Amino acid sequence: MNRLRPLVQLQAATRTYTLGGKDVEAVCDVDLALQPGELVSIVGPSGSGKSTLLHLLGGLDKPTSGSVVVAGKNLSRLDDKELATFRLRSVGFVFQSFNLLPAMSAWENVAIPKLLAGARLRRAKPRAIELLNLVGMGSRAAHRPKELSGGEMQRVAIARALMMNPRIVLADEPTGNLDTKTGCAIVDLLRSVAYEQGDSSNTRLVVIVTHDLGLAEGADRIISIRDGHVLHDRPGAELEPNHSRHPDGVADGTGSDTSTPGTTPATSDKVPAWSRQHSPQEQSE
Predict the structure, then answer these.
(1) Can you give the pTM of this predicted structure?
(2) For the domain that residue 126 is a member of, what is the CATH number?
(3) Which SS3 state, helix, strand or coil, does residue 249 take?
(4) Alpha carbon of 55 to those of 1, 26, 28, 52: distances in Å?
(5) Is residue 100 part of a domain?
(6) How remote is the C-alpha of 238 from its chain's centroid?
């Protein structure tokens, strides 16, 4: 088990929404300590509060009470501009629907966080290509999302999440639009992101929200949540044989994706979530 100092600490974290004149506790009195170099799965039924918990970890929302402290920063004390900077520079987000911009190539999508940080596109290209090579997509760098399969698009999204070299990667149902074999390869890739990027001083915390208990078992920790409460926090199981990994530590990008290009809802013209200036006000799952 990783013995590094916790990167994220939640103390009595509660998030309450007012819906139809009633207060609903989406997350209730949660205490957690999450360490770098760790792959954590959060599981639970729809409406259990797992996505709200992920939003609290990533600074997309603030607790109504209690605290969320990341790398020594209490997120509740940050204003909207400071939270936006935190999300951009410290957290990489991966979503079920990929959220790739359809008019941009794979490498341009990967470069978006650098553009938001003020860099020029051409100066961001070498790093974007490097990350696409890391996730097995270097040969597809010039392709647009509609020319990529679901698994390929999710690999591009993971590369984008790594563009700012964040300490935390948060993945909300990253395999939800993928077949089982491709989903296993994506989880293997996220596992390599947690274990194999950087030295002990800057290893990453990777947190995955998933309905798939089989995939969740491959994590270091499995946190079960229901009705906003953490029910269980236990170690994961050993990897199953079909969770293959590329010899150099990166999940194999060849032969593992059986989805068809252009058949999965892939893109969004909306501003990516990591650049939002305001917290979501509606209740999340």
Answers:
(1) 0.80
(2) 3.40.50.300
(3) coil
(4) 26, 11, 14, 5
(5) yes
(6) 22
